[in-house]
Write a structure and sequence with these properties.
Keywords: Lipoprotein, Membrane, Transmembrane, Transmembrane helix. By secondary structure, this protein is mostly helical. It contains five helices and no strands. The two termini are 22 Å apart.
Length: 153
């Protein structure tokens, strides 16, 4: 494994160094919590299709994009170019903003569902809200550290 990929703070890691460097280690947690949001929204009752449709779009979009970026970083497709650092920062800022909007909409939808829905579906939506905010936090932290890496590149 090349030591330059993991030791330099302004370049993206490649290979399995992705799993040992921060903030790229957060890809795993973004993948897990984004998948949980996707599963919970897909399995819950949808009384407000527009709001929960946005949450579903965000969770699927970020899940697929995070998976694709993780795979591309592992195979070293970036080749150490700084344009990929810019792409990483832009993606994580966009994903953080998307997830923040989706989390707020899902929380609002869950509040409106409190009295008119079964106990099971209500708790599924509460879980989706919690995991959505955790995913938002992960994307925000990743975005901040990606911006720091972008600034130093």
């Amino acid at each position: 494994m090349a030591p330059t990929a993991a030791s330099s703070g302004s370049t993206l890691p490649s290979g399995f160094a992705v799993f040992t460097t921060f903030p790229d280690l957060l890809f795993i947690f973004e993948f897990v919590f984004g998948g949980l949001v996707w599963i919970l929204i897909a399995s819950s009752l949808v009384p407000f299709p527009l709001a929960q449709g946005w949450v579903m779009f965000v969770s699927v979009f970020c899940f697929i994009s995070t998976t694709a970026l993780l795979f591309l970083y592992i195979i070293g497709a970036h080749g150490g170019e700084t344009s990929w650092v810019t792409l990483d920062a832009a993606y994580h800022c966009t994903a953080a903003l998307f997830y923040l909007s989706a989390s707020v909409l899902e929380a609002l939808t869950t509040i409106f569902m409190r009295n008119g829905i079964t106990y099971k579906h209500y708790h599924e939506n509460i879980s989706a809200v919690v995991f959505s905010y955790v995913a938002t936090l992960l994307y925000v932290v990743h975005a901040v550290f990606s911006l720091i890496r972008w600034k130093s590149s």
